[in-house]
Amino acid sequence: MSNTTERTGPLKGMLVLDFTTVISGPVCSQMLYDNGARVIKVERPGIGDSIRSAAPRVDGLFTDVMGVNGGKESIEADMKNPDDLELLKRIIKKADILVENFRPGAMASSALSYDEVKKINPKIIYASLSGYGQSGPLHQNPAYDIIIQSASGFIEATGRPDLPGVAAGCSVADVTSGMLTYSGIMTALFDRERTGQGAHVDISMLEGMMMLLTECVCEYTATGKVPKRRGNDHPATAPFSTYKTAGKDIAIAMTAQTQWAHFCGILQKPEWLEKPEYKGLTARRDNKDMLRAELEPILKTQDHTYWVEKFAAAGVPFSVVQNIADACAMEQQKARGFFVDVDGFKYCGNPILLSSYPRITSRPRAPELGQHSDAIRKEFAAVQKSAA
């Protein structure tokens, strides 16, 4: 029997058949689980999700497996095996959602394309996540996070102007596309409530990354010029960047004149309010290097904790530049209960908080490969017999 029967959430009672692997697709299906759905993860016999063989490990499982597969049920099934394929089709008949992130055409090779699946279950929401989408000249190209960061212009747009571009410090293309797939599924479910019809959700990692680069794309299409790397500086105003103090670096961001006035008061620099080079957003942007040269020597006279207290009291937007350990230890995270407990380890929880449901505080660990195979086969064999 499913281990999700007593769970709550807006998707309670929905069945998800999850063909996803690595990071992008599992992010989506983890969100579906966290919001109440039952998720059956289909894995290759004896191999499973390819990420299972990676490191580092916690209690025998790769940490990313633990972080994006908690609470799911694992069944080993070979889509080339007629008996297994028949079993999957029986599950599809009962499913609300199918998610896959194979290269386009892979599901069709097993007679599980959207066109075939909707014959079995016309109301199913079938979500396909791939590097370049289900159409276009590149749709068959293999893609991983670094490939899409490169293709989208993200790497070239990121970093200091005097150094080569750099990738993000995490799998930003994977996670973004996973969240967009979840969003697409929710949109399709809403439409199904109105029309009674299922849909094929087509998500492109490339398009997701281009959305993250909206400001850069708009600047290019408006001017015809490729935006230059700016490091941490904002293209429209200053101070809007990270700055050095006697302790940790601190991020400062402001656009309102009242914030600038408070800021100058804290620094004991009232004359900056009348300085032509700093009068207005555009002036400060054009003279951001001059501003930094005057600002950082002042900030370096005190530890970051001093400036945190001053800026907080005056309503100046700021943050200490933190590492992951600092971010995980924030009282803000604890107060909102964002992290979930998985066998004593802490992982990111459900980022969607609804007033009508409690926030999840714990999650079962990720399943062992094929942990639920026997139970699922028995459950859906019974469905076949009862339907006969």
Account of the 3D structure:
- This protein has 388 residues and is an alpha/beta fold.
- Helices cover 40% and strands 14% of the residues.
- The protein is built from 16 helices and 13 strands.
- The strands form four sheets. The protein has a six-stranded parallel β-sheet with strand order 5-2-1-6-7-8, sandwiched between helices. Strands 9-10-11 form a three-stranded antiparallel β-sheet, with helices on one face.
- The two termini are 22 Å apart.
- The model is unreliable at 1-5 (pLDDT under 50).
Biggest sheet, strands in spatial order? 5-2-1-6-7-8
| Uncertain parts | 1-5
What is the string of SSEs from the N terminus onward?
Answer: EHEEEHEHEHEHHHEHHEEHHHHEHHEEH
SS class: alpha/beta
The percentage of residues in β strands lies in: 5-15%
